[in-house]
Write a structure and sequence with these properties.
162 residues; 8 helices; globular; binds adenosine-3',5'-cyclic-monophosphate
């Protein structure tokens, strides 16, 4: 159990379908701490870096068009095991098969327009956060309900420490 940071992007369909607030609430209600959030119209150069591992996939061009179509909401979430927790809340890529109760399972019918990007590992999260956020944009503050979100054995642990 480590305190981790993870990158979430609310994709253009989340913004256009007016689901951003609902999706952000899911993360907040779970107990994750929002330490950065902004809206940005993502440029092709940053998207080509972000999706470099999909470059040869048949859906790549459409993915680039979709992701650069209108602004996205970008967030950094912090919490114990947050990379895994956020991936679980998000649900699998192919939204029609995603479990009910997950964001994609409840709100999306599409594999491409699947509302949310979430980092897939701690290492990826570090790279992705640095790609989209400056250090100064990552807020440091105490969450008032912290001691009601985690048990005493889970509190007071330093970032990245067991
Ligand atoms: P995500 O898993 O967050 O990152 C890669 C994105 O590419 C994925 O979400 C979808 O938006 C898109 N994608 C993945 N697979 C397909 C597919 N088979 N067809 C269209 N888009 C896809």
């Amino acid at each position: 159990m480590t305190t981790e940071r993870t990158l979430v992007i609310l994709k253009p369909d989340a913004v256009n379908r007016e689901l951003a607030g609902k999706i952000i609430s899911r993360f907040e209600e779970k107990g994750l701490k929002i330490i950065a959030m902004k809206m940005e119209h993502l440029k092709p150069y940053v998207l080509s870096e972000h999706y470099a591992h999909h470059k040869d996939k048949p859906f790549y061009q459409e993915l680039m068009k979709y992701m650069s179509s209108i602004p996205c909401v970008l967030m950094v979430l912090e919490g114990k095991d947050s990379v895994k927790v956020v991936r679980k809340l998000t649900g699998i890529t192919a939204s029609r098969d995603a479990e009910p109760g997950t964001i994609r399972g409840d709100f999306s019918m599409s594999t491409q327009m699947n509302l949310v990007h979430a980092s897939d590992s701690i290492e990826t999260a570090k790279k992705e956060i640095a790609r989209f956020f400056k250090d100064a944009e990552l807020m440091k503050y105490e969450k008032m309900n912290f001691e009601w979100v985690y048990g005493s054995d889970e509190r007071g642990l330093k970032l990245g420490k067991k």
